[in-house]
């Protein structure tokens, strides 16, 4: 089975169709470990049960005046409630904004002011934070706890719905925020088509990633505010009537217990996952599982083959972005995977690819070039994001000359396989999270003890990149480097998600600047690489903790 969709199709329609076919199958499975973290019940939630929750919420929301054209923020972590809220809102034509629970004051204020939701559903501990963010942003938005929203009354909408002439398939279903190089996150508008196409691709791609209707069980430790879990994992299981097991987060010490307890037939990962799992002592139980394949990106090429040998299943490397969705996904699920080379396969016939050098010409074989992609045929943006919200210039720039410019540097070998080289954009990628250096700099520059700051990526053996901050301190404020660095990180943790805070702090007399006082990013990268092992650089990675 694959998801069938037409002009009036929505994510809710696809779920309801699967629930009609497999009402008694488990859609969600909540492990004991996850249940204990969230204080909820463990076990299965069937398609019929989730559909019932969804329909009950839908009726309540409709009666309160919510409908097409509204946006609603969801800060409910990886709880099962995420799904019935999303499906209920989707059924009414309402777009959801999944909010990263690690975001703090400055980030929340920006997102709420930019997206202007009329309602936000949050875990109880974050309701006050969202109320503060809305007040700071100057928007009128009801904030209610997710338990109250499910069991009690919902406040009336602060404004009337505004239906559009856009067919349901092309209508906005969600807006996901992704870090860019301009310092503030961009709101990626995603349609029902975007999500339904993700499920269609996954259920039909075959090869090493073949899934069917016989009872797939997918385990993911990835967050539901990312497209991987929200779009790929969720719609894949809906497409085949499978079961989704969403962890609260990745727990290395109990991962294999979760794999076995969930009965997972497939798992999703990012590069940090295999690295941490390979660091654990070998066990006679390493192959005691039902996993046929792992699907993800960023595995350390030195660990790729040893991982598969040790644990007994392939890690299928793939490439996609929030902006591309599965409209232009490339995966190494067919043919030779060329393990140990950062190879993510070759494009399918329905995807067109160009590799362009810095001087604008087509890259030769084995020559690095920026990856440009589009859908083959008459609709080059099919399955992609709809736009960057309130930023037509950025949308146009991303689609210059009719190609989506990814900002990733890639090589093509003589066989036509693509190999990831580096990121062209000034983005730090730590444990799968994109961090804009300019965003971190903007916050650190507001610290009263900082005169100037520049942030760069330095390699981290576990997390890929780590945030390195070069600081020009205000005169007379530094008495102790360790204490100063601690104060700076403490400030960051109040304003930013923990992973964006500096992992290293180096005090410098001056930053590498151009004649127009812009940071010379190339020189900064070299400076950070030199300073990361310098005795005066303060390692503050131990201070970067959730919550």
Describe the structure.
The structure is a single chain. Helices cover 31% and strands 24% of the residues. It is built from 16 helices and 25 strands. The strands form seven sheets. Strands 10-9-11-12-13-14 form a six-stranded mixed beta sheet, sandwiched between helices. Strands 4-3-5-6 form a four-stranded parallel beta sheet, sandwiched between helices. A four-stranded antiparallel beta sheet has the order 15-16-18-19, with no helix packed on it. The model has no long low-confidence stretch (mean pLDDT 93). 47% of the residues are buried. The protein has 547 residues and is α/β, with parallel strands linked by helices. The longest helix is centred in the N-terminal third of the chain and has 17 residues, at 47-63.
Structural class designation? alpha/beta
Main sheet strand line-up? 10-9-11-12-13-14
Percent range for β-strand residues: 15-25%
Number of strands: 25
Note the gap between the termini: 42 Å
How would a crystallographer describe the biggest sheet? 6 strands, mixed
